[in-house]
Design goal:
Oligomer: single chain
Shape: globular
Structural class: mainly alpha
Largest sheet: none
Distance between the termini: 51 Å
Number of helices: 17
Strand content: under 5%
Length: 334
């Protein structure tokens, strides 16, 4: 496998460079004009879809959309430590696990109700329930590779980014109107907003204490990416098997999830300097930006419109659903 990867480097370079240029452009736009970098990467990629027809760049774009994506998800593990997970408390942890599980299940059943592919429901539910665009990409990476799944994943990335941005602005003001204090506010923000960056921003809008709590709760949600994607991989994935769970089923575990766990363990042991940990986290973010740029390049924007209104309804309903769970928890048990 390694030999094949090395042999493919020359033909992958043009496409990788295209994706890298898009990623660098989105970094400039995000830093200077604000806005989510992943969304910029997707929109620019979609606008440059015609490049995908060029045979010189196609292999590199495919490489970024698959291999770079999986590496980026694996490197996310460096952000999760066991100390972070234990710090949120048992009640909050149980609520978050329930909210994530219920949202993924809701997505699955909503897809059936709306007569869509169950894969769509898993991608949307995982995205809203766990960590937005990153979760959508991770879930989609273990599901069967179809054009419909690729288009839906991109639509989910756009949808959750927009909804997450709306939540980032509106939730802090809603909590202040309800006279919610910093600790429960942080729990709510971390448990309900989709993307990590928007969680941090919303928490800081409410106050430093809320920002810290929201970040820890959100990191716990990100940690749930592993069991959720593993479950989906075994029972719904492209390599699903009728074999019952056991040692033989370990072969169904995607390699990038094992990397996620390994890096999480390393982060928990604190054996790496903080500068190295931050660097790995930055590399993960860049890889995900490059991957979503590649996914945009592969997709015709007009094809997204063919998905109809049902996916939008799914995302909105799931967003309201997980926010309702969070609000009930902080008003009843905080």
């Amino acid at each position: 496998m390694l030999r094949t990867l090395l042999n493919n480097i020359p033909k992958n370079i043009p496409g990788v460079l295209v994706c890298l240029v898009i990623a660098m452009s989105t970094s400039f736009l995000s830093e200077n004009y604000g806005g989510p970098q992943l969304l910029y990467a997707l929109l620019i990629g979609l606008s440059l879809h015609f490049l995908y027809a060029n045979e010189r760049v196609t292999p590199g774009i495919d490489f970024c959309a698959k291999t770079i994506l999986r590496l980026g998800v694996a490197f996310l593990g460096i952000r999760i430590t066991f100390a972070d997970i234990s710090a949120i408390g048992l009640n909050t942890g149980l609520m978050v696990m329930f909210a994530v599980t219920a949202t993924v299940c809701l997505g699955f059943f909503l897809a059936k109700f709306l007569k869509l592919s169950p894969d769509f429901g898993l991608i949307a539910g995982g995205s809203v329930g766990i960590c937005g665009a990153s979760a959508a990409l991770a879930v989609a990476s273990v599901l069967p590779k179809t054009k419909e799944n690729e288009r839906f994943t991109l639509l989910v990335v756009v949808g959750v980014t927009v909804l997450s941005t709306i939540a980032m602005v509106s939730y802090p003001f809603m909590l202040q109107l309800l006279s919610i204090t910093s600790l429960p506010a942080g729990i709510f923000l971390g448990a309900t907003i989709h993307d990590v960056a928007q969680v941090v921003a919303a928490g800081m809008l409410f106050g430093p204490e809320a920002g810290d709590v929201a970040t820890v709760v959100k990191l716990f949600r990100v940690a749930l990416l592993l069991p959720v994607v593993l479950f989906i991989s075994i029972f719904f994935g492209a390599e699903k098997s009728s074999q019952r769970l056991g040692w033989g089923s370990l072969r169904l575990i995607p390699t990038f999830l094992l990397g996620f766990v390994a890096l999480s363990v390393i982060a928990s042991m604190q054996i790496l300097p903080s500068s190295v940990t931050h660097s790995i986290s930055d590399v993960s973010r860049w890889m995900l930006v490059i991957a979503i740029a590649a996914a945009g390049l592969k997709t015709n924007f007009q094809e997204l419109a063919k998905l109809g209104w049902q996916p939008v309804v799914m995302l909105v309903v799931e967003t309201i659903f997980i926010a309702t769970i969070g609000l009930i928890f902080i008003t009843s048990f905080s």
